[in-house]
Amino acid sequence: MTRYFLDTEFNEFGGDLISLALVCEDGQRELYVSTPCERPGAWVKENVIPILKCPGADPIEVEPDQIGHAIAMFLHDDKMPTIISDWPDDIRYFCQAVITGPGEMVNIPRLQFQMLRMDAYPTDLPGAVQHNALWDARALRHVFFPAVVSGAKEP
Fold first, then answer.
1. Beta strands in 106-145 (DSSP E)
2. How many other C-beta atoms can be found within 10 angstroms of the C-beta atom of residue 30?
3. Which long-range contacts (CB under 8 A, 24 or more apart) does 64-69 make?
4. What are the tens digits of pLDDT across the range 103-126?
């Protein structure tokens, strides 16, 4: 079982997915994808769109129907990936992305999810940019594994 930390950005409440990031528990493997946002809401236009690409975060741009395939390729070697999120919408958008049609999904045989209400910000993670999916997933991993920085035991 390998844990992956998930974050998404979407166009206002209930709007279309804009970006999705998965950060492996080892901190080495990452997936960061984005898709065009035709009509961003005011808050998203001001706080998300300008930082989709920022220092340390350069997304792979894909069409919306290809996000699930990118996830499947990223997770293909893992027999039991566990997806950890701090908000239920992240899990919802992940699940919507892997569904390809009625009764069909990308080839991911097994998945587990954990939703842990943890505040990833404020963070002492160097370079972190809040509201960027990749940085937010990294910040979630960072708060989940304090041992990475402080030598404390894993939660």
1. 112-115
2. 17
3. 64/16, 64/17, 64/35, 65/100, 67/17, 67/20, 67/33, 67/35, 67/97, 68/97, 68/98, 68/99, 68/100, 68/105, 68/106, 69/106
4. 999 999 999 999 999 888 888 899
* Average of per-residue pLDDT values in the chain: 92
- pLDDT of 53 above 60: yes
Tokens of 147: 């041992």
The residue assigned the tokens 């041992």 is 147
Rounded CA gap, 49 and 42, in Å? Answer: 10
* Selection from 126, 104, 132, 129 nearest residue 18 by Cα: 132
Region of 128 on the Ramachandran plot (φ > 0 left; ψ -120 to 50 alpha; else beta)? beta
Q: How many residues does the chain have?
A: 155
Instruction: Quote the longest CA-to-CA distance of the chain.
Output: 47
What pTM was computed for the model?
0.92
Contacts by 49-55 with C-beta closer than 8 Å and gap 24+?
49/18, 51/129, 51/131, 51/132, 52/9, 52/18, 52/19, 52/132, 54/129, 54/132, 54/135, 55/127, 55/129
